[in-house]
Structures
1.
Amino acid sequence: MRLVAMLLAACLLAGCGDDLADVKQFVQNTQDAYRPKPEPLPEVPEFTHIPYTAKVVRSPFVEPVPELIEVQVAQRKDCLTPQPDRQRHPLESFALDDITMRGTMGTDKQLYGLVQADSGSIYQIQINDYLGLFHGRVVAVTARQILIEEMVPEGDGCWAKRMNKLELISG
């Protein structure tokens, strides 16, 4: 019995020989046939250097002289500027185009405006409240509109007042 088991084991082990050369060759041929060939790279155009030759204006590659900037700011300290230390209202993070007047409420003495921001929230505002991106201050609230005095930068460190309004939109 022991001899039969050994012969059977020897036959089984002989059948596990590594004769897969033809299979390996088939797989290699198949992979070679379907492997895409890379396209050739396009020709790189030759770079031609063109020097910057403007003499009249300041070069954009050099930082501006700090003394000139400080002099310009120092010259315009007597002009209108917004209050930097006042408490901000949540409506100051929205542009006026993103705020819609939805109505009013109140008494004859005090009228409050109801506005809806682009976020969908409804806010109650009154005279001297701020809204909009340009430091807009509410100067009047009527049944049909809210008058706003904005401060827009002029570009030289000063600000200019500009009137704007939100009109009632029904619906």
2.
Amino acid sequence: MDAQQPVRGRALVAANFAGVEIELDLVQALSKCWTSPAAFSGSFFHTSVNGHFPAPFAIMKPATLRPFLPRPAIRRRTCLSRSYAVQSPGNPTLQIFNRHTKFQQKERAAADVERSRQVDYLKDEVAMRLSERLLDINRHFNHVLDLGANSCNIARALTLPDPDPDPSKTTSPPLTSRISHLTAADSSRAMLYRDAELPFNKDINLTREVLDDEERLLYEANTFDAVLSSLSMHWINDLPSLLAQINHVLKPDAPFIAAMFGGDTLYELRTSLQLADQERRGGVSTHVSPLADVRDMGGLLQKAGFKMLTVDVDDIIVDFPDSFALMQDLQAMGESNAVLGREAGPIQRDVLLANEGIYRELHGNEDGTIPATFRMIYMIGWKEGPNQGQPLPRGSGQINIKDILGGGDVRQELQINTIAEETQEQ
């Protein structure tokens, strides 16, 4: 993260505006332009815009119209940390998300097939990174479960050429050569079967399965050689229970590899909306829902019975022409707000304009675009097995660290060297 971005927050917002992108400052607006009736809602902020603007905006200088950019490019990626997490989890989480609402949002998003495919750039990127982690595991997987498969992004990524080919081989087979059978499971039939006719389906032994509830796995114990999950677990209410079920359906010494939104995802949008709300309405509405932190996930995995844990964080920063384009993409992804008891009613028009100006002032790029940070939490845990590698008992080491460093009192040698260096400098 950049030093000038100390504000922490969590937010995903979506919106549906007209078919052009409009660059707006606080004193700019588009004359004689009306919005379509739309649902303006977010994963962590909920607002809505209903009806048409009753009258044109008053403008102080002309607005700038630019063609819509349907597929923003990922600008940079920053790996923040990689560590073993052992923090103990807290009490079980309360019901936060309305799973039926989330199901309806994904169904509506998948109904617009072309638009839904355009905004899959983030899910495709994360699915590819998740699939690459299979390269670190030198084994063949007979049966793999893709839990929360969305539009089968992982299956599509597995059919791509090996991103880390063996230089000793003339050809590099795709990752599907290491998987005999992949089961893609999701609660949204429309999203799951959206790309069922695309060519990649012929390159992998893929079975699609519609789940009644992604929080309840009705598989037998010891069924899968690996379980993958990409960008779906951040909508789960009871993560400890789901992780325990995943551990149950895995075979002994089998891996669970997942990625989910967490931490400071879209903190730029969250802080801008809060400031705009405070400025125009005199207070901040309760539209924020929690996201898991990297330390939380380590504890939850440990409590579920996983061993040899690895949890790391990766930031993906995507540039958008304005905040409206960002919100529109998030809605088309199916990432609209599904928090129980979310606030109903439309957001005020002046709050939207204030948010656009504040976003640009606090976080805008020099080229006129705005950045949106998506923080990914990647995790790997292994189900305990009889042949699994175990750490040696404490005190069983046969090599003394003093012998490695040349013998003698290491602390005393360091002090002597320090004194000698200071004497030479004088």
3.
Amino acid sequence: MSLQWEVVGKSKKNQGKSKNVPGNDLNGETTTTKTPVVRKIDESGKKGNRKDNKENRKAPQESAKKPKSEAKVAANPEKGKKPVKKKFKNLEAALQELSVDDLKSHVEVFKANFKNSNIAWLKAILSYLNEALIVDVDAVFLCKPILYPASALPTTLKKLIHDELDAAGASNVQYFFDQCLTSLAVDLNKNLPVVGTRIMLQLIALRFPIVCQSNFAKNAVLHNSYLNQSSIGLSLLWALGQGGYQDCQVGINVWQNMMVPVIEMKHYCKYAVEYIFYILQKAPSNTSLKLTLQEYLNLMDTLMQTRNNIPHNIRNLLPESAFMISKLYIESTKNVSNIFLTLFKNLSTDSPNVYLFTLVQCLKTEPNCVKLWELNYKKLHQQHQILLNYIRDSKHGTSLKGNKPINDFLRTIDPNLVREEVNHVKNRHQGESKAKQQNTQEKTTSKRAEKSSKSSSICPWILGVFVLLGAIGGIIAYDVHVHGGQFEASSTGKFLKDTGALPYVETVWFTSLSYTARGYQWAEMNVPIFYGKARTALTPYCEFGCELATVLWNKVKQGFSSGCSFVQEKSPVVGNFVDQYIPGLSQRVGDATRATWGTISRLSVDYYHFGCEFFRTKVFVGSLSPENLSKALNETQVVAARYYSWFHDKVDAYAKIK
């Protein structure tokens, strides 16, 4: 069979020669190309002809085609490679190389081919941006400004996109927005570039915020489909939440419907908690929230609910968001009185502080709320007390006290609140003046402190010297007393005598005694004179001080008596007021007070008599009897008189020494 295939091959070769133009080069080429085929056939024939006829037919054809294909690839190596798209380091670098003019021409081509088709034109912009902006970005653009990447776009590019969106109309924009959401999820799942899709979604949401809340059911289904893929899920929430930065009402609706269901999930909690806080923080002061009272209460319950799965560092953002929503809600609604009455009736000790804050905002916004409080505080005593305590203790409540209608009402129910506020204002002004004085005094006190520190460092040394001298004098006196009162016989005297210093010490000692005695005599003669003069000069001041003390004491007694009379006057009123809520309480308190006072008086009298009897029978007997005590007193007087005369004799003797 192999020989027959060779013959057939040769005949085809000859036929080819007859058809082609004769030439040595061409014949040479054909022979060289066919030679390897014959060798392959011979080799295959030697192996036992294992291949069938079809395989043998394909072998020479494939061998003939291979050189041609290799020649084509070698001739055109660039045609076999696909162009690689450039990937940028960040979005800013990609936007620098983006040509808005090229984008305009690209859109003009689509406008010429697809007339009156705004969706096609928007898709052209979308595809161009996705191809031009190939960047790896985070799902929610962490560590970037809130309105990023729209804030980084060139003005001309934003104007071009805004013009096309405005020309498309609301219905087309809504349809295109929903398509972009779906393509965002699909392209992210396929790992395709989606930066252009993100930019288009953000610009649409900021231009038309209402599109973010038009299809919650469809968007929820789309989000649940990619719930386990956190990058896709966060990207969808990010796109839907962009409208909230332009319209706070839209942001709250998106948060309630799309983010609250996943707020306790690990990958979504941080973005969901920070989103509601940031949109409220960015909202202008004149923002109007269109919420019913029930929707507001449901929203507060959602925000104030305990959620242990949320990290501690962001958990407090939810209560802060509740306070901000309450403030915006009260400032934008008209039925403030109805809100106040409903919240006031349902108030309890378990109510969150945000409801008390809302009541305070109602009182500040609507004067009629004060009248409602005044009409209902007797019936709703517990609620009244809770609100009153909040106003007294909370920083939000203290801001109410400058309001005149509220001050008038508070003065009737609790005058101390108004007095404390007046005192607070006075103290604040006084504090400002004192702060200025303190600044000037600090400089002088610093110098005084330096001097006092030096003097205080000297004082311990002086005290130590006196203590040391006293200790030495005590030791010497004890030594003299042990040796019979003779200084020369004492150990100190012997030491001084051996050293030869005893005469000098005696001279110094007697000289000091002489001058001390003379000083004492001078003081005994002149001190009474100076004392009389000082007494004469200070007597008017002492009398004035006594009179002032008498006046102050009379004022204290008068104030005490006024307080007692006030208590006696108001006690029946207070008792009647208390009896309205707890009948018989005042009578029970009075009986208990009288019984307690009677018991204390009886015990005091009993203990007084017991003490007198104890001292009479147990203490003042024997050596402590009145007779012995009088004898001891007389003897003490005699000894004191003797010592005084002895002291005078010594003074006179030492005063005569020269």
4.
Amino acid sequence: MERDDPVKITNDTEKDITPPWLEPMLKIKFFHNCAIHLGLRRKECNFYCTDCLEKNRAICNCCKDEEHSDHHVIQIRKSSYHEVVRVTEVATKINVSGIHTYIINGSDVFFLNERPQPKGVGAAAGKNAASPYFCAVCCRSLLNNFMYCSIGCKMAWIKNGGNASFLLEEVKEKCDSNRIGNENGSMSKDSGEGEEGSSAAKDVKHLVPRLRARPRKGIPCRSPFF
């Protein structure tokens, strides 16, 4: 993936490229016991409701069933002590273009945040690794042609002025149209061009390069007698 040069992102436009719930979710601590349901079995807080930004807290399975049954709730999982989320749970809410997709337990997942690297591994080591691909933020070596190793690294790229967006293309076009309409004193629609090309969960499958299966061996047959 081609890396665009950073562009200046102002506070007025930052909200137009990042959903308001995403950055708070990346900062929250998960996998602690719920203070409300301490006596129950499913008390581990590993869910986040994107519709309840004012509460902004991790919730357990019981909280989800009692208070968020009709909300969009994302389940946070763990892989090697690091938090991950399934691609299918976030791809309909944010633009996941450029984020490295991993396959864990048969599911496509994203890491939420940058992972610690061994001592001595950094920009120089990442760029000199066997793979020619590396994260644009933390320089972690990547297996395929992606730009970020995690959702958090894409967020950091945007916060530092990088030319990227978390908004789905159709949502971003609407925001661009409204902003231009306000500047011109009207609400004329401006379709514009999306900065990155993912629009829904159906576009996620191409993010994970699949190895082509080996061709099946044909059924042997005896040569004819003459």
